[in-house]
User: Which sequence fits this backbone?
């Protein structure tokens, strides 16, 4: 699976959009981009995933660049409860996949 | 719908002992994956079971083993515990094999401390 690079930490004001970047320059054509988050002392929570098109669900939007070498997770109206570590993961499917989490980005939403 | 449950939530053992952790997936989910999370190594994949068969395995020694029952509940066993096994052990379930591009639902984890 391709490696990802994320900033160690970011701050965001409550009510504003949080834009979390992820670099995955070695991604291959059939690897998906996944985002999970982990609130302190809880298990990771799935947010969204995509291959090449932008995706949106009730939690967030995922913007993938045309060359697929980077992506941005957007939380449109961040709340204090969105404070968490956000993991960007690039992975293959199939029976030999390995879901590998990096260090992630600690997003702190400030009042 | 109840989420993924893990028991026990906290456990303290001593070196050399063995431990068994349990995971009950979301009803109807047949895939259970196990992960180890430590501050130094982050979250690492241990293994995945689907319909009672191990489908995939991470790079952990043979002291780490698991199994899945016909009701999809899974257990993970660690024998001859070492201090470095102290970690948060997470399980995740999904309706299809984890290698399919679907989402995994994580439990709250079992915090294992080895003294």
Assistant:
């Amino acid at each position: 699976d391709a490696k990802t690079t994320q900033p160690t930490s970011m701050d965001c004001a409550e009510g504003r959009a949080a834009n979390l970047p992820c670099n995955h320059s070695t991604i291959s054509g059939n690897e998906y981009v996944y985002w999970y988050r982990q609130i302190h002392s809880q298990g990771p929570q799935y947010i969204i995933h995509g291959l090449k098109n932008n995706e949106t669900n009730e939690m967030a939007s995922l913007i993938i660049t045309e060359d697929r070498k980077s992506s941005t997770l957007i939380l449109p109206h961040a709340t204090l409860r969105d404070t968490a570590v956000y993991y960007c993961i690039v992975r293959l499917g199939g029976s030999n996949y390995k879901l590998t989490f990096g260090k992630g980005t600690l997003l702190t939403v400030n009042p | 719908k109840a989420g993924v449950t893990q028991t026990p939530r906290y456990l303290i053992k001593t070196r050399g002992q063995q431990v068994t952790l349990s995971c009950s997936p979301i009803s109807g989910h047949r895939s259970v994956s196990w992960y180890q999370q430590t501050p130094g190594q982050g979250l690492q994949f241990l293994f995945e079971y689907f319909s009672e068969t191990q489908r995939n395995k991470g790079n952990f020694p043979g002291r780490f083993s698991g199994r899945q029952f016909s009701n999809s509940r899974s257990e993970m066993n660690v024998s001859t515990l070492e201090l470095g096994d102290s970690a948060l052990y997470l399980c995740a379930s999904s309706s299809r094999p984890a290698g399919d591009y679907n989402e995994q639902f994580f439990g709250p984890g079992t915090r294992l401390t080895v003294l």
Chain A touches chain B at residues 32, 41-46, 49, 87, 93-104 (CB under 8 Å). Strands of chain A lie at 9-13, 18-23, 32-38, 45-50, 55-56, 61-64, 70-75, 84-91, 105-110. Residues 7 and 105 of chain A are 6 Å apart (CA to CA).
